[in-house]
Amino acid sequence: MKATEATAKEPTGKVNWVLVNPKTYATILYLLLSLPLGIIYFTLAVTGFALSIGLTPLFIGIPLFFGVAKLLNGIVNFEQSIIRQILGLPTPPVSMYTYNQQSEAGRNWLMRMVRDFDGGLFIRNTLLVILRFITGIVFFVIMVTVISLGLGFIALPVVHIILMNEMQLDILENSLFSYFHIDWTYNQQYLLYAGVGLVLFWAALRVVNGLMQIQRRIMYVDEPYQRQSVLPVEAQIHAPAQPQYYEYHENQPAQGMMQPVYREL
């Protein structure tokens, strides 16, 4: 029951009222920057691996490899923190791993990196950086396409008026209405195009927020919250049995033979 309640209290980070929610437009900015950031992350990872492998015969290649592993971990943590800030998720608690790092701060930096190296975490971070590069390109193209489609229909009446007044160019002369012999005025067509554009723009914002939720799951943003909800239950299961202590009263008055008196707590 407690595990179910803890899971129900996990932050959702969902975006409602997409047209007026600042999270939606922060997500658009994030997806716009995802393309250059993904390229930078991928370039740093490939360059670091290439240099570390190439310099392996020298001593500098080994610490460079552990430095690249540390860099990938920092990139993943940085991306997770950005997504949490955009979605309004709370900051996860400080893990025991970070506490151990701070307690060993006085040791040699190379020994700390070797001691803190986790092979599974390193492979996961490498795959996440590669996925970040791929999703940065794919999500950027999808977002730009759907938003441009909605804004294009909204701006179509304004563009038609400007072209008619400045260049005497009628871009709606051979529109879809003429093929079906629908005799609509320009004002009626303007209203229809603007309405369709608003619907498409609203759908585009929903798509943008859906892409952010996918990115959230890819980058394991919810992992600290899930670990936090499981730890209290495990702590209760594995809690050591409390021993029973007995208290000895030295000031107890003697009755007959002096015998110690014990009281169970």
How would you explain this protein's 3D organization?
With 265 residues, the protein is mainly alpha-helical. It contains nine helices and two strands, in the order αααααααααββ. The longest helix has 48 residues, at 119-166. It is elongated and about 80 Å long.
Mean pLDDT: 79
Helix content: 55-70%
Helix run count: 9
State the separation between the terminal residues, measured CA to CA: 30 Å
Mass-distribution shape = elongated
Order of helices and strands: HHHHHHHHHEE
What is the strand arrangement across the widest sheet?
Answer: 1-2
Number of strands: 2
| Uncertain parts | 1-8, 241-265
Q: Biggest sheet: strands, sense, closure?
A: 2 strands, antiparallel
Question: Beta-strand percentage?
Answer: under 5%
Cα gyration radius (Å): 31 Å
The secondary-structure class comes to mainly alpha
Chain-wise SSE layout:
Blueprint: H1 2-8, H2 22-54, H3 61-87, H4 96-103, H5 109-116, H6 119-166, H7 176-179, H8 186-218, H9 223-237, E1 246-248, E2 262-264
Antiparallel strand pairs: 1-2
Helix pairs in contact: 1-9, 2-3, 2-6, 2-8, 3-6, 6-8
